Amino acid sequence: MSELNTKTSPATNQAAGPEEKGRAGNAKKAEEEEEIDIDLTAPETEKAALAIQGKFRRFQKKKKDSSS
What ranges do the domains of the chain cover? Predict the structure, then answer.
């Protein structure tokens, strides 16, 4: 198994070149252009938002408590 780790190609250890960054930028633009229609007044959406907010608040509290 150690042979597999030592034979990694140098390209995997290098940062993306300008050509690769350009392709990633084009993909990102395509995602931004896609319009998503979410009914913000739906009860399911409100429940999901409350769940996400609760988890985020717990995360922030845990983060604050551990840094103190």
Answer: 42-67
